[in-house]
Write a structure and sequence with these properties.
The protein is α+β, with helices and mostly antiparallel strands. It has one domain: paralog of FGE (formylglycine-generating enzyme). The chain has 4 helices and 11 strands; from the N terminus they run βββββααβαβββββα. The strands form 3 sheets. It has a 5-stranded antiparallel beta sheet. A 4-stranded mixed beta sheet has the order 9-8-7-10, with helices on one face. It is globular.
């Protein structure tokens, strides 16, 4: 599925940028475990992981181990992320923010690719897109310093592991995606999945938000798709 490259983004009241993504179909997973998945509704995805400044603006304190205003918030559990989402929805007077589902997350990460990483199958190219064990120095880095994927999303690989909405097959654990600054490239692939208990955070775990589309999102997406059709 083609989303037309980098889309227009919108910014909310606390400086979060969101990129509108079209509905589409993609191959989720890798190898024999891959399966076709339909994303039936367009949605907006956070351009970056939630930063410490954004977290502190909403929650009033910064739990992160690695301090830095524009670093991703870390040391937050799935439960903490849900508390942030409830507070942000209340602050903005709607209920459109959530964690992305695992399918939404991988769809956004792949950005139309079917390779190990959004940038292809050569792990050496990953250094242009991600902070991981070989280049991160064992700590997080400010968001957006590495190249975006084809749909304009940054830090989908590495930096911090990201919570998604899903639970695993047992219902006891919550799913995490994307790898982190501590992980080797082989654990930062688009398909890689990790789990943890919802009450446990770590200094390599953060999250980004999905946003259900309003009128702006649909208009922005319509504009992008019109441009793509003209180019074709």
């Amino acid at each position: 599925m083609e989303n037309g490259g980098k889309s227009s983004s919108s910014t909310n009241s606390i400086g979060m940028e969101f990129v509108p993504l079209a509905a589409g179909r993609f191959w989720m997973g890798e190898g024999h475990a891959s399966r076709a998945v339909n994303i039936s509704c367009p949605f907006c995805m956070g351009k970056y992981p939630v930063t410490q400044t954004q977290w502190q603006t909403v929650m009033g304190a910064n739990p992160s181990h690695f301090k830095g205003e524009n670093h991703p918030v870390d040391s937050v559990s799935w439960d903490d992320a849900q508390a942030f989402i409830r507070a942000l929805n209340a602050r903005e007077g709607h209920s459109r923010y959530s964690l992305p589902t695992a399918a939404q997350w991988e769809y956004a990460c792949r950005a139309g690719s079917e390779t190990a990483w959004c940038c292809g199958n050569d792990w050496q190219a990953l250094k242009e897109y991600a902070w991981y064990i070989d280049n991160a120095g064992r700590h997080t880095h400010p968001v957006g310093q590495k190249r975006a994927n084809a749909w304009g999303l940054h830090d989908m690989h590495g930096n911090v592991l990201e919570w998604v909405q899903d639970s695993d097959h047992t219902g006891l654990f919550r799913v995490q995606r994307g790898g982190s600054y501590l992980f080797h490239p082989g654990c930062c692939r688009s398909s890689d999945t990790f789990v943890s208990t919802p009450d446990r955070g770590s200094d390599f775990t953060g999250f980004r938000l999905a946003l259900a589309m309003d009128g702006w999102g649909r208009r922005a997406l319509d504009g992008v798709l019109r441009v793509v059709r003209r180019v074709k």
